[in-house]
Amino acid sequence: MKTDIHPEYQTVIFLDTSCNHKILSRSTIQSEETMEWEDGNSYPVVRVEISSASHPFYTGKKQLIMDRGGRIEQFNRRYGTEGAAEEATSEGGEETAAEAQA
Fold first, then answer.
1. 17 CB contacts (<8 Å, ≥6 apart)?
2. Which of 14, 11, 98 is nearest to 53 (CA)?
3. What is the pLDDT of residue 77?
4. Which of 68, 73, 74, 66 is nearest to 55 (CA)?
5. How far apart are CA 39 and CA 50, in angstroms?
6. Most buried of 23, 39, 64, 89, CB within 10 angstroms?
7. pLDDT at position 91
């Protein structure tokens, strides 16, 4: 194994920002922020948005699709409503008819 090319493997605190759940683990991730753990030592803190303490799969709580953003929201804007799907179909049909006439 080559020397001086691997990142430092250190103890860090992963903090779930949605429910303030903390996990002490080891990682190569670097952080400037530190926090004191229950043993009295200070460790770097890595903030995460979701963990097993807040994920619906582990908690058994359902989450509405509209509460989440990103890809699901984009999908629903494109294909979510019947009216939008019908418009896309009719527009596509008009284009192919126009292309057939040309």
1. 47, 48, 49
2. 14
3. 75
4. 68
5. 24
6. 23
7. 52
Identity of the residue numbered 8: E
Do 28 and 12 contact (CB within 8 A), yes or no? no
CA 50 to chain CA mean position, Å: 8
Q: Is 6 helix (H, G, I), strand (E, B) or coil?
A: coil
Q: Are 15 and 25 in contact (CB under 8 A)?
A: no
CA 44: distance to chain centroid?
A: 22
| Predicted local distance difference test score (pLDDT) of residue 28 | 95
pTM: 0.55
State residue 84's pLDDT score.
46
In sequence order, the 6+-apart residues with CB closer than 8 A to the CB of 79 are 85
Specify whether the CB–CB gap between 78 and 84 falls below 8 A: yes
On the CB side of 45, how many CA atoms lie within 13 Å of its CA? Answer: 14
Tell me the average confidence (pLDDT) per consecutive run of 10 residues in the chain, 102 residues long. 88 91 94 94 92 76 59 76 50 50 52
